[in-house]
Amino acid sequence: MRSSIPGSGYKLSVEPQPLRRRRSLLGPRGLRRHGGAVVGAALLLLFALVAATGPWLMPQDPFAQEIPQRLRAPSRAHLLGTDHLGRDVLSRIIYGSRISLLIGLGAVFLGGVFGCTSGLLGGYLGGWTDRAVVPLVDVFLCFPTFLLALALIAILGSGLTNVVLAIALAIWPTVARVARGEAIRLRERDFVEAARACGADSLHIVRRHIFPNAQGPLLVILTMGVGTAILSEASLGFLGLGVQPPVPTWGRIIGDGVGYMRTAPWVITFGGMAIFLAILSLNLLSDGLRDLFDPTMEATG
Description:
Blueprint: E1 2-4, E2 11-13, H1 28-33, H2 35-52, H3 54-57, H4 89-125, H5 127-141, H6 145-156, H7 160-186, H8 190-197, H9 202-213, H10 215-238, H11 250-257, H12 265-293
Antiparallel strand pairs: 1-2
């Protein structure tokens, strides 16, 4: 944004400050220093490809029940075995990846939009806006994410849409707290003061100067939020409070296999491995992003 100072011949240029070390992950040094993030991104991309191409990858119908084939061990016909109703475990895990990623991304998108907006505006504007945001965030943060999602599901009812809304409402206060802290840190910076001196309004400053420079920490917390959402959905599905049957989810697969841990341990094992790898990939990616955007960590070597 360029503007002139009244009564002088000078022009003042105010541009959003670039995020520090944005490109450090792209070169050979970045790949060496952030190998975990690369592994996490690769695993996450693999899950996304599996979810996107699920209908072509599933060897069996994930809903088809074949009672004579119940609790069959992994074989050439059923690579990951079958469950107590004769359903192919591999097909159900592939189908469940679509549900888990949909819920994780949907909940983080809704919670992120609301949390970023309320946190950035409250932190930058202060006054009554901040006084309205902070108590609401504190009330939500009094409850663990899963317990809050569980309580909201009890109020809203089960189902895909309600699960997304419940997890989004449980995630947004954490995002809002991080966004508010970044807004408070940035609102006194020179480029923000210069934008105010040029007559820019508050919404313009938040959109063009505060938000771009807060993207690093927000991206880290949102990435972690996807893992939290997936784990919350799996926990709700395990308890039978998430997406209702016959739709297979990772939590539902584990819940169905708990009663057969001795006779068919592959059901709960492979279902748990899917959740473990998904959470691991997101944690590795978020750790790499945290190091990438942390201004106190300088590249070495």
